[in-house]
Amino acid sequence: MCEICEVWTAESLFPCRVCSRVYHDGCLRRMGYLQNDSAVEVTETAHTETGWSCYYCDNLNLLLTEEEMFSLMETLRHCKIIPETCLTLDDFLHYKHLVHKQQFERPMAEAQEEQAALQFSALDPDKKGHIEWHDFLSHESIQLLQKLRPQNALLRLLTAKERERARAAFLALDQDGDGFIREGECRRARHGWFRKHQKEMPSCSVSISHVGPMSESSPTSSGSSKSQKTPAAAEQEEARPVDWASFLRENVAYILAARPNSAALHLQPPPA
Ligand SMILES: [Zn+2]
Ligand SMILES: [Zn+2]
């Protein structure tokens, strides 16, 4: 049954990849959720592996409570970020520095600034040199959820479809069926949630630099570890057993961050 008109018809309905809602394209267009040029995109995406998120699920900002939203807006105001505008790398870093200083009362370390720059490129997949307001807002919303809510509360935000997909990913990794996977596999799974829709297929060489850490999940690189620890320590950590409950807990923020349709990565996983 279509979420908007509440009528069931046999004509094709678009399923949301996150929740159980389905929609008529005509209804989406009538409500202004589909612009003319994105209509074709939705029709193409909704039935692919990538899938399509409906307007409830696409907007991570909707997950915030009124108080959390207020606190986010206060921070933005304090950092002189103007809503609805694009941010350059300088704007983004300046903002991250201020927020960090506010929270920890000391400047950001070099490694953290590097991490912020990486996050910026993940939010700017087309390398336009700026990030869209909505991508920035989604990124900040998920950051705030991570900061303010205990992981158990985040788990309650997952839909049945998201749990099912995570379960399937876990079972595929647990090849001997003992209920445990290795820490390294758990970390690499984080990159796997982000199946982003790409307008044009990038050439091979572009795609590797473009997706960055996602290439870690490819079978060829899955055995390598970029960790700077001693090989033995890294190996030990790689091998730490992770059960289903911890797997879900450690991945929940990334599963939520993968919801928006935008090609941007709203929460860049640390290098695997
Ligand atoms: Zn309808
Ligand atoms: Zn949905």
TrEMBL record:
Comp. bias regions, Low complexity: 215-227
Signal peptide: none
Keywords, ordered alphabetically: Metal-binding, Zinc, Zinc-finger
Domain of life: Eukaryota
InterPro entries: EF-hand-dom_pair, EF_hand_dom, KIAA1045_Zf_RING, Zinc_finger_PHD-type_CS, Znf_FYVE_PHD, Znf_RING/FYVE/PHD
Entry annotated with the keyword Signal: no
Region entry Disordered, spans: 204-240
Cross-referenced SUPFAM superfamilies: EF-hand, FYVE/PHD zinc finger
Pfam families: zf-RING_15
GO MF, one annotated term: transcription corepressor activity
Segments forming domain EF-hand: 161-196
Keyword Zinc-finger: yes
GO CC annotations on file: cytoplasm; nucleus
The protein's name in its UniProt record: EF-hand domain-containing protein
